[in-house]
């Protein structure tokens, strides 16, 4: 067992050595592993650099962002857009509401449905944080050329489209 966080190369080598007899598609495995590791690295970096000082979780950030860009959203759609369960959304929304950033409103046409909206303070927070968030986005792709960034984006969108069209969970 190692006592350090293995690098991407070390992980791929260990995986190949461990499962090569199974006849796997290593290129696909490396691609998906790289997506996962990159997403987690970016998420962790953004949380440490930007969100932690606001005591804002990644999930809280995503909920605020989704509600902000759509100028409000029904709770089940907000949970789906944030890729979380409705139960998780309930707790996150409660926290964001207690901080004065989010408010819940019952729908007049169907009282069973609840919509989420940012408060004036929530909108102010997003207008403060989003430019900083985007600066980090710019930084983390900074070693890529503009063409490489566009190619990566196109490829990642193809992966998402494949999942959406094939009905795979997600």
TrEMBL record:
It comes from the Bacteria. PANTHER family: MARR FAMILY REGULATORY PROTEIN (PTHR33164:SF89), TRANSCRIPTIONAL REGULATOR, MARR FAMILY (PTHR33164). Keywords: DNA-binding, Transcription, Transcription regulation. This is MarR family winged helix-turn-helix transcriptional regulator. InterPro entries: HTH_MarR-typ, MarR/SlyA-like, Tscrpt_reg_MarR-type_CS, WH-like_DNA-bd_sf, WH_DNA-bd_sf. Pfam families: MarR (PF01047). Residues 28-165 form the HTH marR-type domain. It comes from Paractinoplanes globisporus.
